[in-house]
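pinging the channel bc i need a second pair of eyes. not urgent but kinda urgent?? the chain im working w is below, pasted from the shared doc
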Amino acid sequence: MQIDEQTCTKIDTALKEFHTHKDLIIAAGAQQKKSQVIDNWYIPKLEFMQSVVPSICANGIALRWSADGTECADIEVIKEPSEFSNNQKYESQICRHLDGVEECQ
């Protein structure tokens, strides 16, 4: 997906519409946890979305908006080394494997 000016406008419009109507979501009882109303909107993804359009306008599209790099790192650093583990205590076994690979290099 390519983020262009039209996409930025759509993101901005959707966020403004959400903020205009978020009180209705609480009034309808949709913002609850264990039958208790949650009256805040501390949602990390929502907070992140607030900075996307201003950042793109100020700096242009950055590679950090892409998950490609982290996907590749996830495969090399987690998935491949986990194949050599015994499915217990992944963290220490993966670290040992990566240390061994680094020493060999």
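so The first strand starts at residue 32 and ends at 33. and The radius of gyration is 21 Å. — does that match what u expected or am i reading it wrong
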